[in-house]
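Model it.
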Amino acid sequence: MTAATPAATAGSSFLIREGRTLRLRPLAGNGMRLWLTSLTILFVELMLIRWVPAEIRYVGFFSNFLLMASFLGIGLGILLGRRGARWSLVVFPMLLLAVSVLITVNQLDVSVQGGSGEIWFGLTDASRGAADTDYTILILAVALVTAVMAALAMPLAPLLRSMPPLRAYAIDIIGSMCGIVLFGAMSWLSTPPLVWFSVAAVLVVLLVLGTRIDWWGVGSIVLMLAAIVPVSLANQGDVWSPYYRITMVDHDDGSRTINVNGIPHQELHCVECPKEPFYHQVYQWFPGRTYDNVLIVGAGSGSDVALVLANNPDIQRIDAVEIDPRIMQIGIDGHPNKPYEDPRVHRHINDGRAFLQGTDQQYDLIIFALPDSLTLVSQAANVRLESFLFTEEAFQSVAKHLTDDGVFVLYNYFRDPWLVAKIATMLQDTFGGDAEAPPLLRTYEAVMATIAHGPLVQQLAGGPPPGDHTEAIPIVGEPDPQVATDDWPFLYLRNGFVADYYIVALAIILLGAFLAVGVGARVTGTSFRRFSPHFFVLGIAFLLLETRSLVSFSLLFGTTWLVNALAFFGVLGSVLVAIFINWRFPIKRPSLLYAMLFACIAVAWLMPPENLLIDPPWLRYALGVILAFAPVFFANLVFSHSFRDTRTADMAFASNLLGSMVGGALEYLALVTGYQALLFVVAGLYGLAWLFASRFRVMADRDLDSDDTPDDVIGEVQAAPA
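Modeled.
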């Protein structure tokens, strides 16, 4: 015997020696490394999508662009990895270090001036540094995220080719689900970016131990630790909630302001302190009137709660609903009047619409207390935290919870008269129905406004309230503002349209994406014939279908981070079930799967999610899950059936991811059509995907016609080196 086994050469059953490189055996298997790589990719993707917009507030209003960048980066990484992924674990921490330094040290930021038909809360105040749209910052953020994700995803190419496609796909999905759970735990614990980057560093160390323990591996670890340093030094003292980076600002007069993602958001007002006039308006309209049961949506740090307590000394109950647990905790700990310590105040961490749907309590006064968020609830949909609070259906839900002499009040800095007119008209349609029962309205400087309606206002029969005067709904000219609905929940759009800055930014990014793919193919010597139109179209269609499903879940169960995470987890879970079915009960002809998919899309069209807002809750949940996930499930059956037959799993996967990026751009169609109409686009795309797989096979799709697919498509094969 002239050579020792690798384990014997290494001197340990836990180590594998390959030349001058060592690997830790439990982490060295291709299956283990694929799982760990997929987990790390998903975790880092969520980390960047959460962290970058918190540091660059402008990007926070384009955060689905970062999701598109992640898809592009992973697709490019798979393409570049076809030539080998030897330097991936060195390049990734190097790029991550560059990103952390660039963002935290240079403090990149710019805001945007909205046009006449769109309002950007937090970004239109000239005193806060508003500027014209700057594509440079946005494109730079997209490029940075793309580069980081591409470097991290390079090992996927050899790993996906090292085993049968369905087995590789299943392991990738399981790793992604674990990444969601891990980052979800970080959000639940309200951990800061220092913890996120530290967890990412641990994951990189595990990848190094399973790939190459040598000086390059040590360099990777050192670079990863270095990337943590700028993050640890930035924004010290900030608090991170599941939604925001929260900064407390103390003023010379003793007042305190809560800034979120660098934008002033709330103030901890004492009852006696000067404050905006809209806080007192309802008491000025109805002087001397008290309210026994009150609901406050957007209770925040407690100023509205304190004011209600002060004006209603004999109040019986206040339900204070706030979606952000950290902001409410700031109010519990630091509000000067300690309103949350009053035993009559019942705190609820929940989405306001979900709370209304889940309670049978009747209220004398319901207040929407500045519930304007400064973030999107999901990067896969243009839905903000408060989107489903300001729809016709939401106002109808409010009406059901008012007593016979109750009143509904909402107030805010509305920024533009057309938004005031839009909300007032929606309230009139809900409570009045004609000009004889108009809402009560007062406007102030900076287009602040208080608007009220309900049975108490209807009793006035169009006459003035007993106290302060009111104003007419402002006339804003053409076009009339489009009312927000559960299907088109875009309060801050005057009418359905896609702004030119979205179109320009999307065009630049998509053009850059196709150029990057072309360069990557040329560098790696990959023929364009390995591109799969079938998987590309499946990627577009699935992203749109997933977006519509996530919006449905947000409407039915609340626009919270937890609902969003569970919905993503459920989507991936349906992928696993589809993989198992295609392995255990292989279907020879996919036509049946497409037929079932189209049937589910048709049912989803006939039963829009707003029709499922029914009681009891268990029935709403059951029907919502079935109708939201049935199309997703059959779409995954279609994908896994095709993926089972592909001969180049890495390029099929890359084509699908690039399609998902295009789907992210097409998602903006919902700003014009609403989300329900996306089902027509989805159905057309799946029809096109079926044609590419069955009638017009070109490029890599010719492989789908092969009849030599092994029976055990999920079994073990000889592992290729990664």
